[in-house]
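Collaborator request, handled under Task 6.
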Amino acid sequence: MAGSSIPDLPEDFGNPWMSNLQELELPEPVPFTFETPGWYLLGGLMTLAVVWFGWRLWKRRQANAYRRIALEELAKLDSPVGLPELLKRTALVAYPRAEVANLYGDSWLGFLDGTLGTKAFSQGAGRRLPDLAYNPGSGTGMSAADTKELFALARRWIRRHR
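Structure tokens returned to the collaborator:
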């Protein structure tokens, strides 16, 4: 068997129906190019969406610049005496002057509570703000815990007022 070879097959051997079959030609691979107008339309829409989103993000950042500045000034304060002025200046930037400028005392605290959705100014740590605004010496008698709570409340109002 080691030296045997396969004998030649006669021409009429096998299925006569398959004698005329030829190898199929494979189609060209599909190119990854953007040749149809739909791709250009989709690309344009995506570009517009990215530009619009970036513009909105930039506008929001610009609109909230006063918050960042106020938070920087708050971080520089070493006593609570400057808090009433800082909150008033921040409110004057964020709201119409006619609505904010004439507020003082309980009406000012009510405004701060209303824009934050809390009662922390009229019934909590913020109750000391009118005293600090009109009697700066009253800030020296505050405990460290009260001062810390008042600073935290001011920071929260600057960040979250609506």
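The cover message to the collaborator said: "The CA atoms of residues 96 and 107 lie 16 Å apart. Residues 65-160 form one domain. Please let us know whether this matches your experimental observations."
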